[in-house]
Amino acid sequence: MTGDLVAALRRWEHLLAEAGAAIIPIMRPGLPESHVRSVLAELGLASSGEIIEWFGWHDGAHSDGVSRLAVEIVPGGEFNTLTNLSGWCVQQRGLQRQLVRQHSETADFFERRWRSTWFPLLRMDKGDLVVELADDQFDSGALRVVWFDADPEESARIAWPSIHAFVEDVISRLESGEYWVDGQGIVQGDVIDFPTHG
Fold it and tell me: So which domain of life are we looking at (predicted)?
């Protein structure tokens, strides 16, 4: 693993470790590139360099026997494994198809609820932080906030242009005190929400 994103991920981990974050000792080892590519290919998704570096850094965190809050790497954002996230992606696609069938008069609304090119990067309390994984999309690699009960137009807005931009934003929030780690090792601060621009 090399590059700007990798350096940023290591800096993020260092900041969390210095602050005594509970997630640090339960982070799982990273995955080989071939495994990440294989899992995403089964979903019909492209494998960006950034998504490979993300899962090459750590494959989420161990969640057995720990508080759900302990696996939050940002406030409200659970750091899950590739296996868990791919299963969730399949579930969301299935739910979307079911809703389209059941609500034919508003099918367009439900078709836009979860795009086939989205993959969840973090699971959130009321939705997901997803990354666009399509070779032929102008916004490939962009991150969106997708809330289950929101209008699809809100979820279509780009929150960060890349995983690297997201990680740098989180680092900035940690360094400024907007995010902090409390006495129990839980990352605190405002939960990620829709971008106010774009």
Answer: Bacteria
